[in-house]
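Q: What does the assembled structure look like for these inputs?
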Amino acid sequence: MPATSRKAPPVEHVPELTTNRLSVYLRCLDALDTAGQRTVSSRALADRCLVNAAQVRKDLAYFGEFGVRGVGYTVADLRGHLRQILGLDRRRRMVIVGAGNLGMALADYAGFRDQGFDTVALLDTARHKVGTRSRTGIEVHHASELAEVVAREDVSVGVVAVPAAAAQETVEALVAVGVRAILDFAPPPVRTPPGVKVKHVDLAVSLESLSFFLAAEHHEQTPAPQP
Amino acid sequence: MPATSRKAPPVEHVPELTTNRLSVYLRCLDALDTAGQRTVSSRALADRCLVNAAQVRKDLAYFGEFGVRGVGYTVADLRGHLRQILGLDRRRRMVIVGAGNLGMALADYAGFRDQGFDTVALLDTARHKVGTRSRTGIEVHHASELAEVVAREDVSVGVVAVPAAAAQETVEALVAVGVRAILDFAPPPVRTPPGVKVKHVDLAVSLESLSFFLAAEHHEQTPAPQP
DNA sequence: CTCTGTGAACCACTTCACAGCA
DNA sequence: TGCTGTGAAGTGGTTCACAGAG
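A:
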């Protein structure tokens, strides 16, 4: 009777694609919850998330049995379980390394706060930036203060928004002061030490993927009809 | 003798993961080129990009035969081929829909320009934002001017930086005025019309992936050794 | 002998299809 | 009957291993 096993099993090895989808499911459940819906079937949830229904059930099966046969899932319960599984039942503290345009923008990006991630500081090697603040008031510290800031503010997540050339050393600096989860916006591939999770967000790759699509489309005899 | 076939074959169906890696290879080749290196083997390139050497060869094989057996690839040549394949031999014009923190930040992000993508305008539905400018001078237009701006400025790429609730309609509006390549920063899954490429960048999912890692790490008896 | 290009083996994730419970 | 949970089948992408060109 593991119907509502709160503690996950060893969670041997959950595919990253699965955890990514859990985030998507959670957002759909949020919407269903505010819409006042009480239960949802794997099919209905899958349709909303643009995935396969079996996929939803398989993904959830990694963590327990949350559904009721013949009925579906209780929206509020499943929402709570996913929040716990994803570790969203507590807030996280975050530093952003690199106070250029991107770093500044990320510091002010409300989406992070809304998801439970509080940016406590920006860091940069440029002396003239130290002491300035982002629009919403996040202060820029000198990079040499990294260890102190991380310890004092109980930081568990680092954001890398430095130029390509500094990416590897920035990651290493973060790891050295105990940060184990890193969101990396710098372009080049970074060698990740074991026990540390680096999530790469490469805007250049995304753009070039679009560019490839446009180029390929153009090579073929542009098949766009005009009705 | 297809050794340097400039025109790609039908390019039947290239996996997205392959084109993403092409971007990574290209960046490594840029570095090798400025470092003055003339040739590179698939092994050496793979090591730099943190992938398998066979992977590099397979990826390139979708587009032709660019190497010389016993030698490797000529850095400058391969770089040129990849730029052409990815459609980076011309600049693209881009609008950003949504002039909130994220949209404004993206407008000022130099990385886009560096990759050949010029942001020509921001658009927003909020009247009071119309006429204002980003720090680097990109002007905010009213959303109703989308069609006109896209036509006048020859825009081929749209960036969606609007709140979740407006994501789907924004994508549809872009498609309606002829934009076929979209970079989407809004959280919810978006139904994509055929013939249109939407590249989703979900910062919330990325963060929650890190959160999951931290939570899982905490559930186990934190196995970090202290030597 | 070196290193590319590629068929074959492998692996991971997805989808199907159905047993089993409400 | 309706829908979950799950073994089995299917799919796509990665890695291996080798033939063959230089």
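The beta strands of chain B are 39-40, 67-68, 72-74, 92-97, 117-124, 140-142, 157-160, 181-184, 197-200.
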